Hints:
alpha/beta
Amino acid sequence: MTVLEVIQKSTEFLARKGVESARLQTELLLAHALGLPRMKLYLNFERKLTDAETDTMRELVRRRSLREPLQHITGTAPFAVWEMTVNRHVLVPRPETELLAEAGWQFLSNINSPPPTALDFGTGSGCIAIALAAKRPNARVTAVDNSSEALAVAKQNAGRNGVAARIEFVQSDGFTAIPAGSRFNLIISNPPYIPSAEIATLQPEVRDFDPHNALDGGADGLDFYRQLAAKAPDWLAPGGKLMVEFGDGQAPTLEKLFAEQKWIVEAVRSDYSQRQRILIAQRG
Ligand SMILES: C[S@@+](CC[C@H](N)C(=O)[O-])C[C@H]1O[C@@H](n2cnc3c(N)ncnc32)[C@H](O)[C@@H]1O
């Protein structure tokens, strides 16, 4: 079969299996199978695949048809200008989280003395911590997660992106194992925020492949925000800020929750689809 025929057949097959953007997904899988940039496929529509290439592509399409995320199949996901290795132990980084990281590094750039410090709470693939360390070379970043498997991926990603020496990785259930006396200018988090009962209703790519531990925010999805609102003040340096991502529709409840715990909610920002997704607060 030619490149074009493979694209057409695989697109049809994946669309029948309910995969969104089936053509784009097919092209990305084929580019991966052939070791080519996706755009090069367009210059090679008439090229015939070898038997080995056909077998490889068939296997990739089979996995995607079972709704395994593209990023798990290729083993990598973009996060702004960085690439993150991903697997079943970490959440696949989402585009809206780039906006959270950007708010974080912009805030850190205003802190001149002594080196700014940041805590990434629930680091997963390490994407936020790595972005902060890469954009603010003078910052000291601590990245915590309760999953040792996630931390192993985050460390690998820090190495891959050249910032391993400037991030301290701590396995911690919430704040419990963070060294006593630490104070951070920035506490930043994309915590689990899906209400437990809603997880079963999510797309298979998320429900069956993102770690449950990265999704489950408790009965109403807000357990981690309650924990952050109550405990983050003990870990914030004077003038420090808390920046959190949250789920679509959670903004009003969260603004109330943080205000009740004596936080001043300074901003609620929207994602690329104009949905409110990021809350920035400081202590009153
Ligand atoms: C929604 S994911 C975010 C991952 C990454 N920061 C991102 O934005 O892509 C939440 C992360 O919190 C971690 N987590 C869940 N419960 C935790 C706990 N009790 N203490 C620390 N981390 C926890 C999960 O392992 C997961 O990596």
